[in-house]
């Protein structure tokens, strides 16, 4: 089973992406998921995608409603498509504390219990708060995620507010929380992949999303962390998922490009690890 935990279907192009063409709808995403993708000589598809709004859609702008209704507005397209395509799409709730902490926690719980959402997304850089200092904003939603058993995916790789080490107070405060370091600490700002790797190494409840990481570093970190800590997430769009699937396939090659990863361990990194975190059958 292949699961991509980081996808952004949308019915309109948000200002943060600034790309041309038509919106990357859920239908386009499913078509892309079908591939096929050639993995060790076999044609495969992405079985499930975890969907969340593009981050720019979740930032309050002039004319948007606030509070619970504003949250429902920016989550509506993902909620609709998670309901319409339960065999392919899994909902991920994006939490922006600037719409209200209590409202955000309540809406997150509602999306989990009523709509079957299985993941929580944090984007502290886009939403402009320091995760190591704004604990009164962050800890309530993490407490609820821990209570519900829902894994947390955090965008990382940008200064000033999404450096992996800034999440350490939260990781330390919630040792039972299932926490995924998004982008392996790499984004537009810098490459914090070694920060991400060592935090993951030292904390049993922390995992890394492999998308955006350098191919040679994935080989190194697969050996450092073990394949059980690797989670496929491609950030599609703007990325194309086959690139990041290929990065994991290469792990089965001989050294130095790969690390002789077994087929079983490759399957875990491609989707079984994510399925276990989300309480799905493997």
CATH fold-level label: TIM Barrel
User: How would you sum up the global shape?
Assistant: globular
* Sequence of strands across the biggest β-sheet: 1-4-5-6-7-8-9-10
CATH class: Alpha Beta
Looking at how many chains there are and whether they match, the oligomeric state comes to single chain
How many domains make up the coordinates?
1
The name of the CATH superfamily reads Metal-dependent hydrolases
**Main sheet properties:** 8 strands, parallel
Structural overview:
This protein has 282 residues and is an alpha/beta fold. The protein has one domain (3-277): Alpha-Beta Barrel (TIM Barrel), CATH 3.20.20.140. Helix content is 39%, strand content 13%. It is built from 10 helices and 10 strands. The strands form 2 sheets. Strands 1-4-5-6-7-8-9-10 form an 8-stranded parallel beta sheet. It has a two-stranded antiparallel ribbon with strand order 2-3. Strand 5, helix 3 (101-115) and strand 6 form a beta-alpha-beta unit. The chain starts with a strand and ends in a 5-residue tail after the last helix.
